[in-house]
Amino acid sequence: MILRSRTVMAWSALVSAFLLSFPVMATDLRIGLRADPDVLDPAQGTSVAGRVVFTALCDKLIDTTAAGTYQPQLATEWTWSPDNLSLTLKLRSGVLFQDGQPMDADAVKINLDRYRFDPVSKRKSELKPVESVDVVDPLTIKIRLREPYAPLISVLTDRAGMMMSPAALAKDKDTVGAHPVCAGPFQFVERVEQDHILLKRFDKYWNKEAIFVDTVTYRSIPDDSVRLLSLRSGDLDMIERLSPSDMPTIKGDPNLQVIEGPSLAYDLISINVNHTENADNPLGRSAKVRQAFELSIDRNALNQVAYEGLFVPGNQHEAAGTAFYDPTHPLKDRDIEKAKALLKETGTPNPSFTFTVANSPILAQIAQMIQSMAAEAGFDVKIQTLESSTLAATSNDGKYQASMAIWSGRPDPDGNISPWAACDGFLNWGHYCNPELDKILAKARQSTDDKERVNLYEQAAGIYLADVPHIVLYHYKSIWAARKSIDGFVPYPDGLIRIQGIKG
Q: Is residue 172 part of a domain?
């Protein structure tokens, strides 16, 4: 018996030595994105693809849950003052930035103040009601407000709640997006524009037990068919924003899986009404022309042809049937004759404009359908195709007449309408500004009474649906595709890919 035990021990030692002589295979999660992210700086970023990458790079003060509620992340708890004029957050202890610096109250103040005041920041309007950010102690921060601001919790679940290393910001805050340093599960390694972004696991991440992959590679592949082919061939493990028309192919492949979930996202057409000389055309000058353009569009046909009927056609920032949707302004049917009559009233029976879309086959199909539909009413629509981040940048600069855009959605209704419709909205590319609408939106932000907010957003809908600075088309359903080996991915309504829990 002793001899047998010694033999077993000898074999065990030999096997262990053999295994240790080989390196442990690293697990790389490869994700295909529909678009190349814009700048990887939470202060400056505006793209959906950028938000997907940020979920791995940058934890937020507060996160949402799969059910759409709120949960702790870098902050463990938060409380409102009785007058709703200050929010106190307790921070998680022991959190480090990816450069080894502590994530504490001083760091939070530096980041929030940067979002509020830096000239490059796109977060200013989201944090406009903030009076001051005060450090109470090393792990406690107090945000003081000029007036009650109901959306603040929601704001802190997105880019304005992402914390970057103050040391990295001190080196060069304007170009920190080229090498971001945050407090998330993965740290930045490299980026090749229009190709890929590589991240590696941060071994000192506060929640490292939830991370099961060593690296994450995001590949930018705008063409849906190429992205799908890369998944089927094994070059990718997962793709976001799967085209509904590709679902039968995925379901018929024994090596792949479709993952479906709810979504806050929607597509819209932004119209330049007051930004540079590009707004000086019939569509930009006249609300009636814009109303006619909207009446020429058959949203149901777009949904059926391009999205297999899976999405929900809509005309508002909130989907039909949700708490803040306004049923008194329902979606109108397509009406070519009324569209022609409106154009005749304006004296422009054949208005012409350029419609810019991202370089995706499905978006090109939608643009062509809209072009054909609008032509029946008398519109001459010219299509321009740009890379996604270029489209966002040129539109933001006013170098467009009408652009197709996607909004990933927010839990609070203010985060769905104000970025596009408020005078200082950071996605208000066309510089639309209606003081009466701004007053209503401001009042809605100040109220914590849902009934009052519902009434105010109904008033808001009446204004922006008449002015038509943009045209909401339909609300999404989130659809991902992945290799069958991928396990642990949880769909969230914001449509983002959280790496926590994913196993390859």
A: no
